[in-house]
Amino acid sequence: MVHPxxxxxxxxxxxxxxxxxxxxxxxxKGGVEMEVQWEGTPPVEPIRTAVSSRLPGVSVVAAxxxxxxxxxxxxAELPDEQKSTAVRQMIDQALxxxxxxxSIRSFEVIGPQIxxxxxxxxxxxxxxxxxxxxxxxxxRFRPAYGVAAVVAMLHDAMIxxxxxxxxxxxxSLTVLAALLTLIGYSMNDTIVVFDRIRENRRxxxxxxxxxxxxxxxxxxxxxxVLTSGLTLLTALSLLLFGGQVLYGFSLTLVIGIVVGxxxxxxxxxxxxxxxxxxxxxxxxxxxxxxxxxxx
Amino acid sequence: MNRALIRKTLFIxxxxxxxxxxxxxxxxxxxxxxxxxxxxILRLKIQDASPQQQHEVLxxxxxxxxxRINAFGLSEAPIQPYGSQGNELLVQFPGVSDSSRIEKLLQxxxxxxxxxxxxxxYTNREExxxxxxxSVPSNRKLLQTRPxxxxxxxxxxxxSQPIIRGADLRDAHVAVDAMEQPVTAFTLTRDAAGRFxxxxxxxxxxxxxxxxxxxxxxxxxxxxxxxxSGQIRGARSSEEAEDLAVNLRSGALPAAIxxxxxxxxxxxxxxxxxxxxxxxxxxxxxxxxxxxxxxxxWAGANAALALLMNGVLLIALLSCFGAVxxxxxxxxxxxxxxxxxxxxxxIFERIREELRAGKSAGAALAAGFSxxxxxxxxxxxxxxxxxxxxxxxxTPAIKGFAATLVIGLMTNLFTSVFVSRVAFDWELLRQRQxxxxxxxxxx
Lengths: 295, 443
Fold this sequence. Notes:
- The complex is a heterodimer.
- Chain A is of the alpha+beta class.
- Chain A has 2 domains: 4-17 and 114-286, Multidrug efflux transporter AcrB transmembrane domain (Multidrug efflux transporter AcrB transmembrane fold, Up-down Bundle); 31-110, Alpha-Beta Plaits, CATH 3.30.70.
- Chain A has helices at residues 4-18, 26-29, 44-52, 84-96, 112-140, 143-166, 173-203, 209-241, 247-266, 268-286, and strands at 31-38, 59-62, 71-76, 102-110.
- Chain A has a 4-stranded antiparallel β-sheet with strand order 2-3-1-4.
- The two termini of chain A are 21 Å apart.
- Chain B has 3 domains: 2-31 and 266-430, Multidrug efflux transporter AcrB transmembrane domain (Multidrug efflux transporter AcrB transmembrane fold, Up-down Bundle); 37-107, Alpha-Beta Plaits (2-Layer Sandwich); 112-252, 2-Layer Sandwich (Gyrase A, domain 2), CATH 3.30.1360.
- Strand 4 of chain A pairs antiparallel with strand 14 of chain B.
């Protein structure tokens, strides 16, 4: 039987890898990034043309801010053998051909080496965190719970990355921080359900596991929905009022919280059930006894 | 029971008082992204060095750069080792908006050169020019000595071509000469040694000038032919000889410095970020408290109290640890509101379940708190585990985020379990005649 959740999860993978894959910001690939404030509505297309004529790999994004600020985020690749001050002047000159009514609010240059180190660190942190949680949950619960929780967590990270690619949101350092927060958050959701399953298994040990899991999900459902709703509220307030700099962070959280809530209900528990069923069948076949229901 | 409750309440009040004082006495420092300024990460191009050597090289570079920065009048800019590879330095200049001057200052290599002195000393440039018919010959140049502590310096006319350059030096260290005086001993590369031997052989008794970054450090007289090693005398103390050795060594490094990361933030952007962060925090808090009050009635107020206290404790602890508040930090703190209320929701839902099962208010409270506690421990420990990995492998910004989250989790456990329970106990005590809890459910 293919659970609907599996199909859903696969579509996330497909989305992410059929297209151009996730976009990485200059944080990870190296380059320059400049935040410019305009007095009126920023002319995105002319800016892109002007800067592209001077620098390679230019991307121009207007601010996604509901508070009415007019900001533009300009990023470009770092040309070889160029001093960063020269690059700053180049962009400045390009902008001054359009208008003089702007001000440069921040400027950042990231060397390609730094980006590579960051990618390495991010992978190490994600792998370490997953491994650590797997070990802790295997110790506190059973290995099956740990595996199910970590798979659900990976599912969340993948789907969120897929959505970010769809929305052309580049993966920056702050987006990474948001993703790592989500890992913890999704884990919390899953553990609350698992905790209940464990408790109910002790109390109603003679019922089939599927019934116990169903009961546990129902018992924790109000908590899951309420908590997700409240966390979603704070993430939404960050998205609406947090300004341009936090946009990627907030967007990632809003997507991830919805996905994470879904996975703790529909992904983690089915995996747990599947594992325990498989395990029981395996044990039964080894003992050459007829396979019965999981107790 | 009553006395115990009063003791607990006093304990909570004391903690709130201490936290408030801590916040007032040690306000949070603002990070560069909130204050505005220039931040640079410098990488030394070091190859084939042991960790020990690399560490020394980094420390020397840091000292040299610090001297340069101090000379530049930016003494409050600290230089810290950065990154996991041990070859990077982080320099931050709060309040500076033009990075080009700083970049030049830091990237300028510490160049050591050795010139033959043709004439001098002169007290100033004009005197030197007057002595040579108003112009310096094309194959000569004028160099100034490094100013002494009283500001005095001398000028020398030297050959325009150095005999030895920084790259010719292999090593330099402090030694003691036959007269028990501290000297700076140096060794040359094999190639330079031959050149230097021929030169010193032919110029015994002549003066020479040791020049660092265009400033004459000392003017020793050549006493004998020198091959691959020699000594620089005239240091007034062993520290001075040490400093000279450090200078020479820095010239001896392949001491190119590369700026691998540069960030300039205008202070107006920082001010806007703080403003936006506070607005987002206020909006999030208001929304959460409103929903909690609607859903849980009086128990919602209880949760709001726990939330507020959680915020106060978190800020106080961050202040005590000397944490620097950055924009990701603010985002983390706003997010903590949502995560912190989760503990309350978990407990409240459990209490409601127990009430539904027909328990009395007091019994439902006790059962709700104790049953939810196990779940809370599991969720908190798991998050701490993942934060530990962020802390070990993360960049400083991510480290700060992880630390903030862990501290927030600790304070959260305290406020949601201990403070919230005390508040509930007061409610029960106040309404002893009633056996209900205002937790937003019809009974």
